[in-house]
Amino acid sequence: MKNYLPTALSIITLSFLLSTCSESTQNSVPQINTQQTDQGVSDFNTDITIREIMSSLVDPHADALWNAVRVISDENGITEYFPETEEEWAALRISAVSIIESSNSLMMPGRAVARPGAVGIFPEFEFTPEEVAARLATDFQSWAGFSQGLQDAAIGLLNAVDAKDTDALSEWGFYLDEACEACHSTYWYRAGI
């Protein structure tokens, strides 16, 4: 008769070790903020503020896209700049994708405008974070619409980058600027700026 005791003890020991490992892994996972959406519960972390998304993602990547095609006229004459290498096009693709995904982040409800006590660069000409938050609370749909406009322009830029079309890159850069200014005139600049 075969002895099954060592095998049974091995299985019990292995089960215990796996359950212990599983419990310690679950305890070390950081908690994620949960947002209720029309489709159900989704896990989103909205701790990064709107200002942080704008300054860390949208602004630098928009600048990269705007500066990709330009003409400089100075004492040396006229110099045209446009992407030429695979690396330059790849960097522009990263910029376009970053703005597309930043737009998704901007459309997530429950995100703070800025960190507590934050002040703008030109506070006399800018809405305070509290004023912006009040506007968002009364009409989030307009904010989402502006964010969608930003995303649409970035998708156009992504298509131009993928086609390596400098004319389209310049044209969609113009639309990106229009999308930014439309939103800023509602949520950033005070009247008359």
What do you see in this structure?
With 193 residues, the chain is mainly α. It folds into two domains: 7-35; 46-187, Four Helix Bundle (Hemerythrin (Met), subunit A) (Up-down Bundle). 61% of the residues lie in helices and 9% in strands. It contains six helices and four strands, in the order αββαββαααα.
Short description:
The protein contains six helices and four strands, in the order H-E-E-H-E-E-H-H-H-H. The protein has helices at residues 5-28, 50-66, 86-106, 129-138, 140-163, 166-187; strands at 34-37, 40-43, 70-74, 77-81.
The CATH topology of the largest domain comes to Four Helix Bundle (Hemerythrin (Met), subunit A)
Query: How many beta-strand segments?
Result: 4
Fourth-tier CATH superfamily name of the largest domain: Cytochrome c/b562
Helix % is: 55-70%
Number of domains: 2
- Classification by helices and strands: mainly alpha
Put simply, the count of helices is: 6
Widest β-sheet, arrangement of strands: 1-2
In the CATH hierarchy, what is the architecture of the largest domain at level 2?
A: Up-down Bundle
The major β-sheet equals:
2 strands, antiparallel
Output the helix-strand order. Answer: HEEHEEHHHH
Radius of gyration: 25 Å
User: Low-confidence parts lasting 5 or more residues at pLDDT below 50?
Assistant: 1-34
Distance between the termini: 92 Å
Question: Could you tell me the strand content as a percent range?
Answer: 5-15%
* CATH C-level name of the largest domain: Mainly Alpha
State mean pLDDT (0 to 100 scale): 83
Shape category: globular
